[in-house]
Amino acid sequence: MADPDDDAWFAAKRYGFGAGPPVAWQGWALLAAYIAALALLRWLLVPGHRIAWAIVFVALTITLVTVAARHTRGGWHWRWGKPD
């Protein structure tokens, strides 16, 4: 698991750009909340409200990406598989 002195919620990806899997309970809770919010969004908004659904979906996804970027060990930058 995560180092107790480390405030990272996600591990860095080994290859590419972005966050890898969660390494702390906060990361798992964030992903669970995102999935639950998407399920609730699907259940609450009827298919006729596609624009509203898209707006809320984009807002939730931007929130997830922003929080994950701030709490990824080593930050987000391109990685080629070498240890940092």
Quick structural summary:
The chain has helices spanning 25-44, 50-70, and strands spanning 10-12, 15-16, 19-22, 79-80. With 84 residues, it is an alpha+beta fold. Helix 1 (25-44) runs antiparallel to helix 2.
Question: Top keywords for this entry?
Answer:
single chain; 84 residues; alpha+beta; elongated
Give the helix/strand layout.
Layout lengths: L9 E3 L2 E2 L2 E4 L2 H20 L5 H21 L8 E2 L4
Antiparallel strand pairs: 1-3, 2-4
Helix pairs in contact: 1-2
Description:
This protein is of the alpha+beta class. It has a domain at 23-72. It contains 2 helices and 4 strands; from the N terminus they run βββααβ. A two-stranded antiparallel ribbon has the order 1-3. It is elongated, with a radius of gyration of 15 Å. The protein starts with 9 loop residues before the first strand and ends with a strand. The mean pLDDT is 85.
- Largest sheet, strands/sense/barrel: 2 strands, antiparallel
Structural class estimated from helices and strands: alpha+beta
- SSE pattern, N- to C-terminal: EEEHHE
Number of helices: 2
Low-confidence stretches: none
Distance between the amino and carboxyl termini:
18 Å
Helix content: 40-55%
Strand content: 5-15%
How would you sum up the global shape? elongated
Return the average pLDDT rounded to an integer.
85
State the total count of DSSP E strands. 4
Rg calc:
15 Å
Lateral arrangement of strands in the main beta sheet:
1-3
